[in-house]
Each structure stands twice: as C-alpha cells, then as structure tokens.
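Lab meeting tomorrow. Look over both lines:
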Amino acid sequence: MRTVDDIIGSKPSPDNIIGPDALVIEALEMLNTVNLSYLIVMEGNVYQGIFCERDYSRNVILKGRSSNSTKVKEVMTTDLPVVHTSDTVEHCMHVMNINKARYLVAFSPDNEFEGVITIHDLLRQVIANKELVFDTSVAEQLINNDERGDVY
C-alpha cells in the first residue's frame, strides 16, 4: 500500500515556505505567487505551522486585523494532525476525516519535518493507485455492507 513517504517523494521540493515573523500581506503575496492554498511556516529548519487561506479569512479578516501589521505567527495554524512517513494513504484519509482537516503534517521516525500532506495529495493517490491505496479486504467489506448496517 502507498505511504506518506511515497507521497512526499512524489512532490517537488517545497517553495511555499515563509518565516513566522513575515507580515500576512507578504504571505498573501506568496500564496498568489506559488498558486497554492497554504504556506509552510519554518523558523530555520524547524517546522512552526502553516498559514492558509482559512487562517486569513478567520483570523485576520473576521477579526478586523490588518494584513500590513499582523505577523504570520499570530494567525497561523499550529495544531494540525500529525502522520509519519510509514503511515498509509488510507490511514491519512482516516486521520483527515476524523479531524476534519485539509492538511496533515508529516514527520520521519526521527521526528524530522518531512512535509505537508493535503487532501488533494490523497485524492491524486486514490485516483492513480486505487488498488494500492486500499486494502482489498477493507474495500470488499465496504462494497458488501448494506447501507443500513453500522458502517461509518
């Protein structure tokens, strides 16, 4: 089955990295430039969190803050669910679903930051490798279960 390591290995090196002391306006400009929905917030080589469009709308706009004076570290997300490089895509989907998250933070067995897994990364894996993503027995159980059963 496909793993977090497979996903990280298939992604280009991230160019969507910003420092925690950057202003939100700089982060917005970078989001526009890289054409992604999130930035990885790093201080040196240490992962700090992510800044995403949702952070901007909820923590800046709706709270009446200014993009020109608010720092990324004041509004970024720091409590994303964590996965490890050996975890399966299926596990990632489960974690994302339970936590109602769009992003997962991936760490190596040595707790080194490896990258961010997005819902789009998982969907691409499912579409391209559906037979490698799901355990056949799990898929068969899902197919064979009646909708009135206790399937969640």
Q: What stands out?
A: Confidence is low (pLDDT under 50) at residues 146-152. The beta strands are 17-18, 38-43, 46-52, 82-84, 103-107, 113-118. The first helix runs from residue 4 to 10. DSSP finds seven helices and six strands in the chain.
